[in-house]
Amino acid sequence: MLYHTLKKEFLLILRNQHALIVLFVMPTLFIIIMSLALQNTYANKYDVKLNIGVQSESNASAFGAFMDKLNQNQFFNFRLIENETVIEEALSTKTYDFILSMTPNFMENIVKNEEASIQIISRSDVAYQQVAFLKQFLSLKMAEMVIENFSTVLNLKSATQASFEEKITHTYLLKDNHPTQITSVQHSVPSWLIFSMFFILIPISNTFINEKNFGTMDKLRSMNIPLSGVMLGKFIPYFVMNQLQVFCMLLVGMYLLPLLGGDALVIQGSLFLLMLISAVVSIAAISFALSIATISNSSEMATILGGTSNIMLSALGGIMVPKIVMPKLMQDISEISPMSWALDSFLEVIVNGGSFGDIQHALFKLLTFALCFFSLAYLILKYRRD
Amino acid sequence: MAIHITHLLKRYSKNVVLDHLDLSIKQGSIFGLLGPNGAGKTTLVSILNFLIPKDAGKITILGHDWDKNQKEIKSLCSLVPQSYAFYPTLSAYENLEFFGALHGLKHKDLSRQIAYALEMTALEKYRHKRAESFSGGLKRRLNIAIGLLNNPKILYLDEPTVGIDPQSRHYILNVIKKINQSEGTTIIYTSHYMDEIEYLCDDIAILDHGKIMFHQSKEELMKNDHIATLHLSDESQKEINLYENYDALVDVFCEIKEKSLHVKELQLPKNSLEDLFLSLTKKELRD
Lengths: 386, 287
Known about the structure:
The complex is a heterodimer.
Chain A: H1 2-14, H2 17-37, H3 39-43, E1 50-55, H4 60-70, E2 76-80, H5 87-92, E3 98-102, H6 106-111, E4 118-122, H7 128-154, H8 161-167, E5 172-173, E6 179-180, H9 184-198, H10 201-213, H11 216-221, H12 227-259, H13 271-295, H14 299-316, H15 328-334, H16 338-350, H17 356-385
Helix pairs in contact in A: 1-12, 2-9, 2-12, 9-12, 9-16, 10-13, 10-14, 12-13, 13-16, 13-17, 16-17
Chain B: E1 3-12, E2 15-25, E3 30-34, H1 41-48, E4 56-61, E5 64-65, H2 70-76, E6 77-80, H3 92-102, H4 107-120, H5 136-147, E7 154-158, H6 166-183, E8 186-190, H7 194-200, E9 203-208, E10 211-217, H8 218-224, E11 227-232, E12 237-241, H9 247-258, E13 263-267, H10 273-281
Parallel strand pairs in B: 3-8, 3-9, 6-7, 7-8
Antiparallel strand pairs in B: 1-2, 1-4, 4-5, 9-10, 11-12, 11-13
């Protein structure tokens, strides 16, 4: 009986094209898009520089050296512009992100410690952080120029800001003191994998609600089928589908993303622990899906109820926005989301190479979550039967 | 008796749906259950199939106590619900294979029963087509085929011809007769179509307001249905059964003439089951 029940459920899933898109195509696309989009953020690289137009009446040779110094960076691209340039037009056409207007004889006055200032002009929609960073950058470069000039006068070897920066490095220290570089793929793959695993709710609820709304559930109830058999018949195929998702998404991260110019997924920890986490996450996702399916009367209701819950849990759980960029309060709130527990476990193994001890607490919370929702689904079904 | 029900009571809140209902259904018969919407037909079939609990009363099905022998009763009966009880994206064969396996059938037994169900419903050439591509008639036949898989002693058919063309309807009615005759299966048939019930059923009951308003064999019904009543001028009345022939008429009219009486009123027999149904259940619209 179990064989034919599993066969039936597998056929129903495989012939449900919408479900397959949600389960496999959606996470693949999310992983590719988000990994490539966040690639530079994680790698500390900046491909796109902000364009800064500079208006000045300073002495050409001294100012030229200052401009060269300004352009020794990976964030800004400084260019001299004519004083007659219409600033409003240059900004509104986005030719420049900022325009710097310097007081006359700016360089000479700076070195002499006389009155010199820079006015930063921008559109109103630029991020405040960009303005703050530009101000800090300019003040550092001005200080460097002063120190260099002072050093030249005293015939001293100057220490530039650039050389100070080179002395500051950043290393991610992992288990066993093994240093590595975290990539966006290591965050995107588990994140969108968890998201799609919880979306198993769509095919489960569709099948369940069709059985309820058509006469199939009545037919099954009029036969000698124990409720545990019905529940198990649902649980196993979807568990297998979840594991297939894990397998496929890991392959996407390892082999497809590098072909598209992204980093390859590197798993620091044990594959066995990865399988254990995916099994527990699957149990939690299916239990949650079963409870939504049992309380919903229509596919629309299940899609709205389940879809909204999943999106809320993922937004809170650091799936859509990494928890590291959340403020402290939001990070604390994210701890209530089972997707956060799942993501922490995956990241612990994939990025940190963590052991069972490091993930056991999160797995316990996921299993408790699963037990609560599975019991809820079972009791509702049993109550309706009796 | 296939089914024996005494004082069956079912309430939904304060609304009494089955009101101390008594009913006996003969084994091997085709029992037609008629009733307007909301009469309690589906509730009765649902209770008999353990889909909803009863509030009071005693039910015995094929000698088994409903309260104690649920498992035995379920294995002897089969329900064909009014809505389609199958998976549209599976083929006819895959559906039959799944439901057959749920009945505990394996290997050769399963194949044999699937072949039997397909043959009885003439679905052999559609066996590998998905149910979602079927016409209404084919879907109804697949519904019935699934109901035949466990060779039931009692087959419940809840309005099995709703929404199909006359040809498919005629075919399905004949299939039901065939199942009854070849296997001796007791058929419990609910429908709104009086002609189907008249054509198909040996025993007919009309249910309304949770009570059996009428229960007779078709033979009795036909006999009663052919009684003409003459109201005479001396306030007496004569009943004449026209079921066999019209000879009785001659005798009665001779007697009336001899006594020099007049016929004040002649009540002709009810024409059809539909007239009987409407006279019992009244003509007002139901929800």
